[in-house]
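Q: My labmate handed me this sequence with no annotations at all. I'd like to see what the chain might look like in three dimensions before we decide whether it's worth expressing. Could you predict it?
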Amino acid sequence: MKEAMAYEKLKGTDVKCHLCAHNCLISNAQRGICAVRENREGVLYSLVYGKVVASNIDPIEKKPLFHFLPGSSSLSFAAPGCNFRCRHCQNYEISQFPRERNFAIPGKDMTPEDIVNSALQNKCESISYTYTEPTIFFEFAYDCAKLAHEKGVKNIFVSNGYMGPEAIKLIAPYLDANNIDLKGSDAFYRKICGARLEPVRNTIRLMKELGVWVEITTLIIPDLNDSDRDLTDIAEYIASIDPSMPWHISRFYPTYLLTDKPPTPIGTIERAYDIGRQKGLDHIYTGNIPADRAKENTLCPSCKAVLIERRGFQVLQNRLRDGRCPQCGNGLKGVWTSGLGPSS
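A: Here is what I predict for the chain of 344 residues:
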């Protein structure tokens, strides 16, 4: 347990948490929506500091990040909890644990030194704060990220994008990349996730402005966020920020509380891809579909040459030369070597 960051003390023993866009008003002995930040006599505490509930070494492509150190490995870990209540959560057993079960919060006790040393020992070029929402274990992620930054290890958030601007500005100097879910319309966020759309859009914009490399993921669910209007709005927003920002389109499979919907038709994924192209996006990738239908290769926006060839999470060939297309010389936006920051 550690005192929280990004909160203010109010009259009496009430506090207001500014870590995420919920801005929870938390009375004494109560917790915020995430269920892992608790007010104790007017002091807000994180209950998951150092509580590692999942840890793996993943290919960076699994985050998914396709324009960030392709072919590298990332030490990935999570603490329990989430500030969303997504009905289709793939990791609900750990993300919803503190909210749904009246047990002690689980997790292996680890220190920032443990995390960073593990990344170095396993030759991981980055650490990914993932599986659950990294915002809810922000204090631990922040301490890990600062130490990793000192050791030359990159830091990645895989996030729902609901972080508050105060927290974004705190972590941005140490955060190298962020894959952010852009899930659908505001109605979708309210009905399916217990949240709102606009704070997510604000996070994408602010992360980009602060120099963090950003890629976007959309999981398409039949009848919920798969209309032409839904997909067009997402594509247009990405294009308004940066047409070169990669968009990962993913297929839904029934899970958790959303088992009444079928898997997303492959045709819907391909329709989303076409809409993204029509709206001028340079880099669109499709996933969770058969390999012969997936679009996983990185193409040069100028001459359309295949620059990075992939199959699943494996990089088969990387033809980039100092971040440029060897055929036409066009520069490609991304983080291509561990010693360089993100291209503008």
